[in-house]
Design goal:
Rossmann fold, binds adenosine-5'-triphosphate, single chain, six-stranded mixed sheet, binds magnesium ion, alpha+beta, five-stranded antiparallel sheet
Amino acid sequence: MKITIKNLTKIFPSRSKKGDEVVAVNDMCLEIPSGKLVGLLGPSGCGKSTTLFMLSGLENPTSGHILFEDQDVTTLAPERRGIGLVFQNYALYPHMTVEQNIMFPLVNMRMPKEEAKARALDAAKLVQIEDLMARKPSQLSGGQQQRVAIARALVKMPNVLLLDEPLSNLDARLRLQTREEIKRIQRETGITTVFVTHDQEEAMSICDIMVVMKLGVVQQVGAPQKIYDNPSNMFVANFLGTPPINIFKGEIVNGKLIIGGEVVLEKPELEDQAVFVGIRPEGFIYDENGRFTLNTDHIEVMGRDKTVVSTHPNSTKDTVRSIIDSDIALPEEAKQLKFNLKPNKVFLFNAETEERIY
Ligand SMILES: Nc1ncnc2c1ncn2[C@@H]1O[C@H](COP(=O)(O)OP(=O)(O)OP(=O)(O)O)[C@@H](O)[C@H]1O
Ligand SMILES: [Mg+2]
């Protein structure tokens, strides 16, 4: 099911007389191709859940349109949209068994019991909980409860699956496992899926398409790796990647990029101007004759690679993190280390608009 979002806006009225209204989603335009897993990503309050609620019909847009294929569903009731929904707190009915929980949407639509049972079993098999059908939710682990919630969303065979932070209650390992499972289920069923998260790593790892939002406004849409390699502005560059990108104040003078008095790269195609320079942690190459000097604080050895933790007077953050292959020997106890930069890991942003200029 292809989803088209046209100029979608949601404004919540102010809660007090003096307060301002909240533009939760601001003129969003988005095309979600059929069968894709799309991630809505952004910090708390950026409008992810509001977008999902409007897709589900639980919230009405202030303006704009939502189309499922060619049908305008903007004002269609939730139960008529053919969607499956999993919320952050996936409240299962505690007094019902797993089977009854999964069957609930079908019983609600008065499907004959035998058929509902068979369908519930199919959905349970998909998320591999068919052995747990007789248990109550309190007898399940967090991850198992999560899967029951997903089975319940899938049992109606929805055209669209909407997931709002479905993994947020799980511990790190279960989270990893369950997100892979969601990816597998999504692939197997081919259901167009919208997945809300504020965890960039989670979004990067499972989404076909990522939508990065800030304050209700879509910042960038694309394949995760593409956005990582080509962020459209400083916010997006900052939001993706662990450890995060390092940002420095710099300037272009006579075609050279200068940070703190050092010429660190040749950038002949740009006019003289002040810039913000984003350098990914993996963009540093250790070189004792390098052009870029960092004041080394300490080195963290992490198996595959080392993280050099340093400071730099022009950095906008307290620490600069550079990742170096663990095979590369670094002088112990060095107060300063010199680096060269990988040009494709260096981004330049306009110092005022913070839009990417290189
Ligand atoms: N019912 C409401 N009434 C008024 N304001 C609301 C309402 N629901 C959400 N908002 C506001 O709209 C903005 C977007 O909220 P939303 O829940 O969509 O954010 P989110 O991206 O899902 O955040 P989180 O990651 O914290 O879940 C926030 O500023 C929020 O306070
Ligand atoms: Mg939310």
